[in-house]
Amino acid sequence: xxxxxxxxxxTSAAGAGRLLVRLPNWVGxxxxxxxxxxALEAAGLAPVLAGKGWAADxxxxxxxxxxxxxxGTRAAVRALxxxxxxxxxxxxxxxxxxxxxxxxxxxxALGYRNEGRAFLLGRTLARVDGLHEVEVFWRLAAATAEWxxxxxLPPVPxxxxxxxxxxxxxxxxxxxxxxxxxxxxxxxxxxxxxxxxTTGGESKAWPAFGELDRTLRVAGLATVCCPGPGEDxxxxxxxxxxxxxxxxxxxxxxxxxxxxxxxxANDSGPMHLAAAVGAPVLGVFGPGDPRRTRPWGPRAHxxxxxxxxxxxxxxxxxxxxxxx
Length: 324
Hints:
Elements: E1 17-22, H1 27-32, H2 34-42, E2 45-51, H3 55-58, E3 66-68, H4 73-82, E4 88-91, H5 96-104, E5 108-112, E6 123-125, H6 133-147, H7 167-179, E7 188-192, E8 198-199, E9 202-203, H8 209-218, E10 222-225, H9 232-238, E11 243-244, H10 250-258, E12 262-266, H11 269-276, E13 281-285, H12 290-293, E14 300-304, H13 312-323
Parallel strand pairs: 1-2, 1-4, 2-3, 4-5, 5-6, 7-10, 7-12, 10-11, 12-13, 13-14
Antiparallel strand pairs: 8-9
Helix pairs in contact: 2-6, 4-5, 7-10, 8-13, 10-11
Protein backbone atom coordinates (compact mmCIF):
# COMPACT_ATOMS: atom_id res chain seq x y z
CA UNK A 1 0.00 0.00 0.00
CA UNK A 2 1.23 3.48 -0.77
CA UNK A 3 1.99 5.71 2.17
CA UNK A 4 -1.21 7.21 3.68
CA UNK A 5 -1.67 10.95 3.44
CA UNK A 6 -2.81 12.95 6.48
CA UNK A 7 -6.58 12.92 6.78
CA UNK A 8 -8.51 16.12 6.34
CA UNK A 9 -10.67 17.34 9.24
CA UNK A 10 -13.80 16.42 7.31
CA THR A 11 -12.80 12.76 7.19
CA SER A 12 -10.93 12.29 10.43
CA ALA A 13 -12.06 10.38 13.49
CA ALA A 14 -12.63 13.71 15.24
CA GLY A 15 -15.71 14.31 13.07
CA ALA A 16 -17.64 11.72 11.09
CA GLY A 17 -16.89 11.94 7.36
CA ARG A 18 -18.93 10.65 4.47
CA LEU A 19 -17.25 7.79 2.61
CA LEU A 20 -18.42 6.53 -0.77
CA VAL A 21 -18.35 2.72 -0.84
CA ARG A 22 -18.65 1.03 -4.22
CA LEU A 23 -20.38 -2.23 -3.34
CA PRO A 24 -19.61 -5.59 -4.95
CA ASN A 25 -21.95 -6.73 -7.71
CA TRP A 26 -23.04 -10.03 -6.13
CA VAL A 27 -25.35 -10.65 -3.17
CA GLY A 28 -22.94 -13.01 -1.44
CA UNK A 29 -20.06 -10.55 -1.74
CA UNK A 30 -22.13 -7.73 -0.26
CA UNK A 31 -22.98 -10.00 2.68
CA UNK A 32 -19.30 -10.84 3.17
CA UNK A 33 -18.43 -7.13 3.09
CA UNK A 34 -20.78 -6.35 6.00
CA UNK A 35 -18.14 -6.60 8.76
CA UNK A 36 -15.99 -4.10 6.87
CA UNK A 37 -18.87 -1.67 6.43
CA UNK A 38 -19.98 -1.94 10.04
CA ALA A 39 -16.42 -1.42 11.29
CA LEU A 40 -15.97 1.73 9.24
CA GLU A 41 -19.23 3.10 10.60
CA ALA A 42 -18.12 2.31 14.16
CA ALA A 43 -14.84 4.11 13.44
CA GLY A 44 -16.75 7.34 12.81
CA LEU A 45 -17.25 7.24 9.07
CA ALA A 46 -20.63 7.47 7.35
CA PRO A 47 -20.89 4.95 4.49
CA VAL A 48 -22.63 6.25 1.37
CA LEU A 49 -23.17 3.26 -0.88
CA ALA A 50 -23.16 2.90 -4.64
CA GLY A 51 -24.05 -0.31 -6.45
CA LYS A 52 -26.87 -2.53 -7.64
CA GLY A 53 -30.45 -1.52 -6.87
CA TRP A 54 -31.26 -4.71 -4.93
CA ALA A 55 -28.77 -3.67 -2.24
CA ALA A 56 -31.25 -1.05 -0.99
CA ASP A 57 -33.65 -3.74 0.23
CA UNK A 58 -30.91 -6.06 1.48
CA UNK A 59 -29.28 -3.33 3.60
CA UNK A 60 -32.42 -1.40 4.59
CA UNK A 61 -31.94 -2.27 8.26
CA UNK A 62 -28.62 -0.39 8.35
CA UNK A 63 -29.87 2.97 7.12
CA UNK A 64 -27.01 3.58 4.68
CA UNK A 65 -28.01 5.69 1.67
CA UNK A 66 -27.56 4.02 -1.72
CA UNK A 67 -27.04 5.41 -5.20
CA UNK A 68 -28.11 2.86 -7.80
CA UNK A 69 -25.53 2.68 -10.56
CA UNK A 70 -26.85 2.04 -14.07
CA UNK A 71 -24.92 -0.01 -16.59
CA GLY A 72 -22.16 1.74 -18.47
CA THR A 73 -19.33 3.95 -17.27
CA ARG A 74 -20.80 7.23 -18.48
CA ALA A 75 -24.17 6.54 -16.87
CA ALA A 76 -22.51 5.50 -13.60
CA VAL A 77 -20.40 8.67 -13.53
CA ARG A 78 -23.48 10.77 -14.15
CA ALA A 79 -25.36 9.05 -11.31
CA LEU A 80 -22.48 9.63 -8.88
CA UNK A 81 -22.17 13.28 -9.82
CA UNK A 82 -25.92 13.87 -9.53
CA UNK A 83 -25.88 12.22 -6.09
CA UNK A 84 -23.04 14.54 -4.97
CA UNK A 85 -20.93 11.53 -4.00
CA UNK A 86 -18.29 12.03 -1.28
CA UNK A 87 -14.80 12.80 -2.54
CA UNK A 88 -13.18 9.92 -0.65
CA UNK A 89 -14.12 6.36 -1.45
CA UNK A 90 -13.58 2.66 -0.91
CA UNK A 91 -13.71 0.33 -3.90
CA UNK A 92 -14.89 -3.20 -3.06
CA UNK A 93 -15.02 -4.30 -6.68
CA UNK A 94 -12.08 -5.63 -8.71
CA UNK A 95 -12.73 -4.29 -12.20
CA UNK A 96 -10.94 -1.48 -13.96
CA UNK A 97 -14.30 -0.14 -15.12
CA UNK A 98 -15.57 0.47 -11.59
CA UNK A 99 -12.31 2.23 -10.69
CA UNK A 100 -12.57 4.39 -13.81
CA UNK A 101 -16.14 5.44 -12.98
CA UNK A 102 -15.14 6.65 -9.53
CA UNK A 103 -12.11 8.49 -10.87
CA UNK A 104 -14.16 10.28 -13.53
CA UNK A 105 -16.75 11.20 -10.90
CA UNK A 106 -14.04 12.94 -8.88
CA UNK A 107 -13.76 10.31 -6.14
CA UNK A 108 -10.33 9.47 -4.74
CA ALA A 109 -10.77 5.82 -3.79
CA LEU A 110 -8.79 3.13 -2.03
CA GLY A 111 -8.81 -0.32 -3.58
CA TYR A 112 -6.77 -3.32 -4.63
CA ARG A 113 -4.33 -2.54 -7.41
CA ASN A 114 -5.21 -5.50 -9.64
CA GLU A 115 -5.97 -5.28 -13.37
CA GLY A 116 -3.47 -2.46 -13.80
CA ARG A 117 -5.86 0.06 -12.28
CA ALA A 118 -3.51 1.58 -9.68
CA PHE A 119 -3.27 4.86 -11.62
CA LEU A 120 -7.04 5.34 -11.18
CA LEU A 121 -6.97 5.04 -7.40
CA GLY A 122 -6.12 7.48 -4.64
CA ARG A 123 -4.59 4.75 -2.47
CA THR A 124 -3.78 1.15 -3.37
CA LEU A 125 -3.38 -2.13 -1.55
CA ALA A 126 -1.80 -5.38 -2.73
CA ARG A 127 -3.97 -8.48 -2.60
CA VAL A 128 -2.91 -11.38 -0.39
CA ASP A 129 -3.61 -14.93 -1.55
CA GLY A 130 -5.25 -17.55 0.63
CA LEU A 131 -7.69 -15.30 2.47
CA HIS A 132 -11.42 -15.68 2.91
CA GLU A 133 -13.39 -12.97 1.11
CA VAL A 134 -14.52 -11.55 4.46
CA GLU A 135 -10.84 -11.03 5.26
CA VAL A 136 -10.21 -9.56 1.80
CA PHE A 137 -12.83 -6.86 2.42
CA TRP A 138 -11.67 -6.38 6.01
CA ARG A 139 -8.13 -5.53 4.86
CA LEU A 140 -9.56 -2.81 2.63
CA ALA A 141 -11.56 -1.38 5.52
CA ALA A 142 -8.52 -1.40 7.82
CA ALA A 143 -6.44 0.40 5.19
CA THR A 144 -9.23 2.95 4.70
CA ALA A 145 -9.42 3.65 8.43
CA GLU A 146 -5.65 4.24 8.47
CA TRP A 147 -5.80 6.44 5.37
CA UNK A 148 -8.52 8.66 6.82
CA UNK A 149 -7.01 8.94 10.29
CA UNK A 150 -9.56 6.82 12.16
CA UNK A 151 -8.79 4.50 15.06
CA UNK A 152 -7.21 1.22 13.90
CA LEU A 153 -9.52 -1.69 13.20
CA PRO A 154 -8.97 -5.00 15.02
CA PRO A 155 -6.57 -7.32 13.19
CA VAL A 156 -9.27 -9.86 12.33
CA PRO A 157 -12.95 -9.49 11.39
CA UNK A 158 -15.73 -10.49 13.80
CA UNK A 159 -17.14 -14.00 13.86
CA UNK A 160 -20.53 -12.89 12.53
CA UNK A 161 -21.50 -10.92 9.42
CA UNK A 162 -24.21 -8.99 11.27
CA UNK A 163 -26.97 -8.21 8.76
CA UNK A 164 -29.71 -6.16 10.40
CA UNK A 165 -33.38 -6.62 9.55
CA UNK A 166 -35.87 -3.88 8.86
CA UNK A 167 -39.31 -4.45 10.42
CA UNK A 168 -40.76 -4.72 6.93
CA UNK A 169 -38.53 -7.72 6.26
CA UNK A 170 -39.88 -9.62 9.27
CA UNK A 171 -43.48 -8.83 8.38
CA UNK A 172 -43.06 -9.86 4.74
CA UNK A 173 -41.41 -13.15 5.72
CA UNK A 174 -44.06 -13.99 8.30
CA UNK A 175 -46.89 -13.18 5.88
CA UNK A 176 -45.38 -15.26 3.07
CA UNK A 177 -44.87 -18.25 5.34
CA UNK A 178 -48.38 -17.95 6.76
CA UNK A 179 -49.93 -17.86 3.28
CA UNK A 180 -48.02 -21.07 2.54
CA UNK A 181 -49.48 -22.73 5.63
CA UNK A 182 -46.42 -22.36 7.86
CA UNK A 183 -47.45 -20.61 11.05
CA UNK A 184 -45.05 -19.16 13.62
CA UNK A 185 -42.94 -21.95 15.09
CA UNK A 186 -43.30 -24.26 12.09
CA UNK A 187 -40.37 -26.59 11.46
CA UNK A 188 -38.98 -25.93 8.00
CA UNK A 189 -35.73 -25.97 6.05
CA UNK A 190 -34.79 -23.57 3.27
CA UNK A 191 -33.31 -25.18 0.17
CA UNK A 192 -31.55 -23.04 -2.46
CA UNK A 193 -30.85 -25.33 -5.43
CA UNK A 194 -29.92 -22.69 -8.01
CA UNK A 195 -26.58 -20.95 -8.56
CA UNK A 196 -25.64 -18.34 -11.12
CA UNK A 197 -22.37 -18.57 -12.97
CA THR A 198 -19.67 -21.20 -13.07
CA THR A 199 -16.29 -21.91 -11.51
CA GLY A 200 -13.62 -23.12 -13.93
CA GLY A 201 -16.36 -23.69 -16.48
CA GLU A 202 -18.30 -26.02 -14.16
CA SER A 203 -21.73 -25.35 -12.70
CA LYS A 204 -21.89 -24.43 -9.00
CA ALA A 205 -25.33 -26.07 -8.67
CA TRP A 206 -25.23 -29.34 -6.71
CA PRO A 207 -27.27 -31.89 -8.70
CA ALA A 208 -28.84 -33.78 -5.76
CA PHE A 209 -31.19 -31.19 -4.25
CA GLY A 210 -34.23 -33.19 -5.33
CA GLU A 211 -33.08 -36.19 -3.29
CA LEU A 212 -32.21 -33.96 -0.32
CA ASP A 213 -35.64 -32.34 -0.50
CA ARG A 214 -37.37 -35.72 -0.23
CA THR A 215 -35.14 -36.81 2.66
CA LEU A 216 -35.80 -33.66 4.67
CA ARG A 217 -39.57 -33.93 4.19
CA VAL A 218 -39.54 -37.57 5.28
CA ALA A 219 -37.68 -36.42 8.41
CA GLY A 220 -40.55 -34.05 9.25
CA LEU A 221 -39.21 -30.76 7.91
CA ALA A 222 -41.21 -28.75 5.42
CA THR A 223 -38.93 -27.47 2.66
CA VAL A 224 -39.11 -23.89 1.43
CA CYS A 225 -37.56 -22.40 -1.71
CA CYS A 226 -37.36 -18.65 -2.45
CA PRO A 227 -36.48 -18.25 -6.14
CA GLY A 228 -35.28 -14.98 -7.56
CA PRO A 229 -36.87 -13.15 -10.50
CA GLY A 230 -37.44 -15.49 -13.41
CA GLU A 231 -36.32 -18.57 -11.45
CA ASP A 232 -39.70 -20.03 -10.41
CA UNK A 233 -39.83 -22.78 -13.02
CA UNK A 234 -36.21 -23.85 -12.47
CA UNK A 235 -36.72 -23.97 -8.71
CA UNK A 236 -39.88 -26.08 -8.97
CA UNK A 237 -38.07 -28.48 -11.32
CA UNK A 238 -35.09 -28.81 -8.96
CA UNK A 239 -37.15 -29.37 -5.78
CA UNK A 240 -40.66 -30.46 -6.84
CA UNK A 241 -41.82 -31.08 -3.27
CA UNK A 242 -40.78 -27.77 -1.79
CA UNK A 243 -43.07 -24.87 -0.90
CA UNK A 244 -42.13 -22.07 -3.30
CA UNK A 245 -42.28 -18.49 -2.03
CA UNK A 246 -41.81 -16.37 -5.15
CA UNK A 247 -41.34 -12.64 -5.31
CA UNK A 248 -39.58 -12.08 -1.98
CA UNK A 249 -37.06 -9.28 -1.66
CA UNK A 250 -33.64 -10.09 -0.29
CA UNK A 251 -34.43 -8.74 3.17
CA UNK A 252 -37.54 -10.91 3.48
CA UNK A 253 -35.59 -13.89 2.11
CA UNK A 254 -33.01 -13.37 4.87
CA UNK A 255 -35.80 -13.25 7.45
CA UNK A 256 -37.20 -16.55 6.11
CA UNK A 257 -33.73 -18.08 6.52
CA UNK A 258 -33.53 -16.70 10.07
CA UNK A 259 -36.58 -18.75 11.06
CA UNK A 260 -35.47 -21.99 9.39
CA UNK A 261 -33.99 -24.96 11.19
CA UNK A 262 -31.34 -25.03 8.46
CA UNK A 263 -30.65 -23.48 5.05
CA UNK A 264 -28.94 -25.74 2.52
CA ALA A 265 -27.50 -23.85 -0.43
CA ASN A 266 -24.94 -23.95 -3.19
CA ASP A 267 -21.91 -21.66 -3.16
CA SER A 268 -24.23 -18.75 -3.90
CA GLY A 269 -25.93 -15.64 -2.56
CA PRO A 270 -28.55 -17.49 -0.46
CA MET A 271 -25.80 -19.33 1.43
CA HIS A 272 -24.21 -16.04 2.48
CA LEU A 273 -27.63 -14.48 3.10
CA ALA A 274 -28.43 -17.15 5.70
CA ALA A 275 -24.98 -16.80 7.26
CA ALA A 276 -25.40 -13.00 7.37
CA VAL A 277 -28.33 -13.28 9.80
CA GLY A 278 -26.59 -15.88 11.95
CA ALA A 279 -28.90 -18.70 10.87
CA PRO A 280 -27.88 -22.36 10.68
CA VAL A 281 -26.56 -22.89 7.16
CA LEU A 282 -24.94 -25.70 5.20
CA GLY A 283 -23.03 -24.75 2.06
CA VAL A 284 -22.58 -27.41 -0.63
CA PHE A 285 -19.45 -27.03 -2.75
CA GLY A 286 -18.23 -28.78 -5.88
CA PRO A 287 -15.89 -26.83 -8.16
CA GLY A 288 -15.59 -23.86 -5.77
CA ASP A 289 -13.04 -23.21 -3.01
CA PRO A 290 -14.65 -23.20 0.45
CA ARG A 291 -11.47 -21.78 1.96
CA ARG A 292 -12.27 -18.55 0.14
CA THR A 293 -16.08 -18.42 0.03
CA ARG A 294 -17.38 -20.80 2.70
CA PRO A 295 -20.28 -19.44 4.79
CA TRP A 296 -18.93 -17.22 7.58
CA GLY A 297 -20.40 -17.47 11.05
CA PRO A 298 -20.65 -19.51 14.24
CA ARG A 299 -23.55 -21.60 12.87
CA ALA A 300 -22.07 -22.11 9.40
CA HIS A 301 -21.14 -25.51 7.96
CA UNK A 302 -20.00 -26.74 4.55
CA UNK A 303 -19.20 -29.92 2.62
CA UNK A 304 -17.30 -30.64 -0.58
CA UNK A 305 -15.16 -28.35 -2.68
CA UNK A 306 -12.09 -28.36 -4.94
CA UNK A 307 -13.95 -30.22 -7.67
CA UNK A 308 -15.64 -32.90 -5.57
CA UNK A 309 -19.35 -32.87 -4.77
CA UNK A 310 -20.46 -34.43 -1.47
CA UNK A 311 -22.96 -37.28 -1.62
CA UNK A 312 -26.66 -36.74 -1.03
CA UNK A 313 -26.44 -38.93 2.07
CA UNK A 314 -23.61 -36.89 3.55
CA UNK A 315 -25.46 -33.61 2.98
CA UNK A 316 -28.72 -34.98 4.37
CA UNK A 317 -26.96 -36.37 7.44
CA UNK A 318 -25.26 -33.08 8.30
CA UNK A 319 -28.36 -31.03 7.47
CA UNK A 320 -30.40 -33.18 9.87
CA UNK A 321 -27.80 -32.76 12.60
CA UNK A 322 -27.70 -28.98 12.15
CA UNK A 323 -31.52 -28.79 12.16
CA UNK A 324 -31.96 -30.56 15.51
